[in-house]
């Protein structure tokens, strides 16, 4: 496929990832020297002659099939993810649905990690079931044992590492090897790590999904999804995208490109501060356990050390049993931690969560109330003071 950005030596593999992030998907010489690719809005693309329109000549045909803004983003993501191609969709959930619809058909069987993002389950149990695809959930710690769960009609296996809310690590290379040996497709929700910390296709993933809403945005100011795939699977992904036309919004794509330039810097700080906060929380008397694969005590630490080059800023904390009133007193008074869904932005967040109502292949019995933290870019000392005051309220109310 022709691309907007001319192949540049600055995006070559020989450069470090931060350098490549600065230059990927950008060609100032095609933009009158301006640094960034602008927002192209549009449905109609005009053809200069009868002959051109009859033969659909030209890179762009119609707004749904792509724009220079979309190419700038998807080209950059393809290079970053080490993929053969990428499509950009209006949300992360939409990107997951494209990955799944590209991989399964009526009569097929699908295996999904029990720790997958909950809306992924709702999509599988709802729309996919209605269209004749059967989904079975599996223990995320299954590893190469996934082979034993595959049926003759198992077409795809979805992995997510670490798991949503509960942060179990999955042995993605072992699962990929076993699934490929039986001809299946490996789909991964790689939102937590991004390709910066876990290069999905290099580790055996066929189709990788990123909620660009999170770290690519970095600002809680847009919704975006990216579905990247290797050479074998990209044609099916692109075909599915073309049949549905779930095009990401032009302004959101522009903002995502802006986020891309600073993503490695931000992730490094989210990871550093996140681990510092995780250690601090682990030492608190109110805390039973911290769910963070970067901690040596975490059951997923060995896999994380082997396969990941860092952590992002999202992790879980299990508190020692305490009344709901005490928990509410802690959370309601927080000044810096906001309570709300999504994550990946510059601000710190906390949510209470409970996986019990919807897990089917594993037991969720953590032994106390569960909180999920996203550590933003504030000063860590201020975040500790905010939580310290929160723990005082918790103790006073308990
Ligand atoms: C947020 C999230 C998504 C979905 O992204 P949206 O853009 O909010 O639809 C998918 N997977 C994971 C792991 C997420 O955290």
UniProtKB/TrEMBL annotation:
Coiled coil: none annotated. Gene3D superfamilies: Aspartate Aminotransferase, domain 1, Type I PLP-dependent aspartate aminotransferase-like (Major domain). It catalyses: L,L-cystathionine + H2O = L-homocysteine + pyruvate + NH4(+). Its cofactor is pyridoxal 5'-phosphate. Pfam families: Cys_Met_Meta_PP. Keywords: Lyase, Pyridoxal phosphate. InterPro entries: Cys/Met-Metab_PyrdxlP-dep_enz, Cys_b_lyase_bac, PyrdxlP-dep_Trfase, PyrdxlP-dep_Trfase_major, PyrdxlP-dep_Trfase_small. PANTHER family: CYSTATHIONINE BETA-LYASE-RELATED. Belongs to the trans-sulfuration enzymes family. This is Cystathionine beta-lyase MetC. It comes from Methylobacterium cerastii. The lineage of its organism: Bacteria, Pseudomonadati, Pseudomonadota, Alphaproteobacteria, Hyphomicrobiales.
């Amino acid at each position: 496929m022709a691309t907007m950005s001319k192949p540049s030596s600055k995006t070559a593999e020989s450069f470090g990832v931060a350098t490549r992030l600065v230059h990927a998907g950008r060609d100032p010489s095609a933009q009158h020297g301006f640094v960034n690719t602008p927002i192209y809005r549009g449905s109609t693309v005009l053809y200069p002659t009868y002959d051109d329109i009859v033969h659909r000549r030209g890179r762009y045909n119609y707004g749904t099939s792509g724009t220079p803004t979309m190419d700038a983003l998807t080209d950059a993501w393809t290079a970053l993810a080490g993929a053969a191609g990428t499509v950009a969709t209006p949300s992360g959930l939409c990107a997951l649905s494209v990955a799944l619809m590209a991989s399964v058909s009526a009569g097929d069987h699908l295996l999904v990690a029990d720790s997958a993002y909950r809306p992924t389950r709702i999509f599988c149990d709802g729309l996919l079931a209605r269209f004749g695809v059967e989904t079975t959930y599996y223990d995320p710690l299954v590893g190469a044992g996934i082979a034993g769960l595959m049926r003759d009609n198992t077409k795809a296996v979805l992995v997510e590492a670490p798991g949503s809310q509960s942060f179990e690590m999955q042995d993605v290379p072992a699962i990929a090897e076993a699934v490929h040996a039986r001809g299946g497709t490996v789909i991964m929700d790689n939102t937590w790590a991004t390709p910066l910390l876990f290069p999905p296709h290099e580790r055996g993933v066929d189709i990788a999904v990123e909620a660009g809403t999170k770290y690519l945005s970095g600002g809680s100011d847009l919704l975006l999804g990216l579905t990247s795939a290797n050479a074998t699977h990209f044609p099916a992904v692109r075909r599915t995208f073309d049949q549905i036309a779930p095009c990401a919004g032009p302004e959101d794509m522009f903002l995502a490109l802006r986020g891309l330039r600073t993503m490695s810097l931000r992730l490094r700080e989210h990871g550093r501060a996140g681990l510092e906060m995780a250690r601090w929380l682990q030492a608190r008397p109110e805390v039973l356990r911290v769910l963070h694969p970067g901690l040596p005590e975490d059951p997923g630490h060995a896999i994380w050390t082997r396969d990941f080059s860092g952590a992002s800023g999202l992790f879980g904390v299990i508190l020692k049993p305490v009344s709901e009133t005490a928990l509410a007193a802690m959370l309601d008074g927080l000044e810096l931690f906001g309570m709300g869904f999504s994550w990946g932005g510059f601000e710190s967040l906390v949510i209470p969560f409970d996986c019990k109502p919807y897990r089917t292949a594993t037991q969720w019995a953590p032994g106390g109330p569960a909180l999920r933290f996203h550590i933003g870019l504030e000063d860590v000392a201020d975040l500790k003071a905010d939580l310290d005051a929160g723990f005082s309220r918790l103790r006073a109310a308990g």
